[in-house]
Amino acid sequence: MAKTTLETSTKASENKLWGGRFAEDTDAFVEAFTASILFDQRLADQDIEGSVAHARMLHKVGILNDQELADIQEGLAAIKVQAAAGELEWSVALEDVHMNIEARLTDRIGIAGKKLHTGRSRNDQIATDIRLWLREQVDLIVSEITRLQQGLVELAEREAHTILPGFTHLQVAQPITFGHHMMAWYEMLERDYERLLDCRKRINIMPLGSAALAGTSYPIDRDFTAELLHFDRPSRNSLDGVSDRDFAIEFTSAASLIMMHLSRFSEELVLWTSAQFDFINLPDRFCTGSSIMPQKKNPDVPELVRGKSGRVYGHLFSLMTLMKSQPLAYNKDNQEDKEPLFDTVDTLLGCLRAYGDMMPHVETKPESMRRAAMQGFATATDLADYLVCKGMPFRDAHEVVGKAVAHGVQTGKDLSEMALEELQQFSGAITDDVFDVLTLEGSVAARNHVGGTAPEQVLLQVAAAKTVLVTR
Ligand code: ARG
Fold this sequence. Notes:
Distance between the termini: 34 Å
Low-confidence stretches: 9-14
Number of helices: 21
Shape: elongated
Number of strands: 8
Strand content: 5-15%
Oligomer: single chain
Bound molecules: arginine
Radius of gyration: 31 Å
């Protein structure tokens, strides 16, 4: 943990980098209230990276000489090491990460440190820092998504032939394969992956050079700075550059969708691990017990992930509300963007990590799933389709099968458990080949087209997914 001095300053002009025009000290509470150092110290690396690039640009255009640039680079490198070791004294009196680092630099190298802020403002500095930080985080997040997708694909391949009931309205609908179900989750994550990469394009624009709001009178070279920082280009409008937080909102919205997906997976895992479903087992190391009920093994990881989706949605709304009434250009309101954004990233990375670790170890219970698929007349549609193949219009077939199901409900038998004569009471078109379609295997195997649940299709999807994932 980094050190933070909570002492307030004694004399404004001595301690504040902006103290020149002030006649009295900042009120102690106001100083703490307006400071962001307690949370924005997390941006120290990005702040330093941005400062080094800015200094190199100032040197290129002749504003800093060789010695000054060398001093700044050396000083910032030393501060970076100190910050990483948790040895930098962060001061609340110095308000934020930018002024803390600049003050420490000047303490170290003297006058050259005071030249670093030439042609920039904290407004373009913070906008640049967050973009640098978020770009890195997006790269981490997409690699976690990929890892989770790999786990799902593995599981889908292993369980391509495992049959469970598929549900609509949470009522048994038709038999499906477990692999097919896992590949549905894979598809959701694939869209999440694409959304993040698309959002990254808009993150990767450089506001630095916008200065406070109007640009600067120095002959800066923004293309050069952008290149040094690996941004795609400098922002085109300085007012927009310092005040735009769309990229953070867009990211949080993509994060909310990912959390929504993870929450849906969670809900299914919670149901499936219950004694009533009993479709899967989660290894003990991903579960916890109860302090009072000795028999309990609770699916805490999925439950927590489901619960955490709410806080990410909350952050999305915080950020949208934060922006909605702001006039151009920068306003201090924007300081409130950091905590929601940081927590969104931390929450999302934590949830993805937990799922990435857990999913490859999910154990299925095929017997139990099979039993469940045999209840609820999961192959009723197959019988209707069979009658259609024999020449009956679909609506009439639907009616016939409905009657057969009603008979099954009365007698406690699945369609596949009825004798041929029993089935024939409902339609003379039924012959003994009907049992090929009434079995669970026959039902899933028949859905053998792109996107269908047949094991053959699942394995094709698995193979296609693998070729996509190896390139990442
Ligand atoms: N801590 C501020 C933020 O997070 C940095 C920019 C402050 N700019 C200013 N003019 N007060 O937005």
